[in-house]
Amino acid sequence: MRFERCKMLFGEENFKKIQASKILILGVGGVGSYALDCLYRSGVSHITIVDYDIYDESNRNRQIGSDAVGESKIETLSKLYPEIHTIHQQMNMAWVEHFDFAPYDIIIDAADTTKVKIEVAKKCYKKLIMSVGSAKRYETNKIEVSSIWKTHGDALARKIRNELKKAKFDRNFTVVFSPEEDKCKEKGSFVGVTGAFGLTICSEAIKKILSSK
To answer: What is the pTM of this model?
Structure first.
């Protein structure tokens, strides 16, 4: 049976909560694709992914589905995970402003654009799990989960904190980050870390589901 071992771990009633949860994933690259895979294999029945990109050769070191070079990420992943819902959409400020996040229990932000991440945080902080700073690192044991206000050692998290302070926004939301010092200047990446970010996000999502009433 497909989810027998998940039911053994979580119990029947908790597994029903997992199945019933509605999760939105913003960005399905090196982090988001692994979060998707983990949630899908854990029994979440209502997963919606949002992305606009196509795969290129440079994605193949870290992204699930990226052997389909030249193809849409959304279309490729919908073949690999046929029960998911997809939105082929470029995420910009206007989209965040007008999109209805209300139907979802958890929002996973694995998007690349800082301004978009900040606006998503303002709109969805109660349901949000945000990924920051998975590039330029190779030590998975440095990955941490914290409130945005307790992040440290990561430039993107610091920028987001500063921009939120300027906007007089002081609410909490969950962030997966790593204070590991950058190992290169460009956007070098290692699937051990980007994938581990995605799996950590999945774990945090499951914990949120199980703790909800």
So the answer is: 0.97
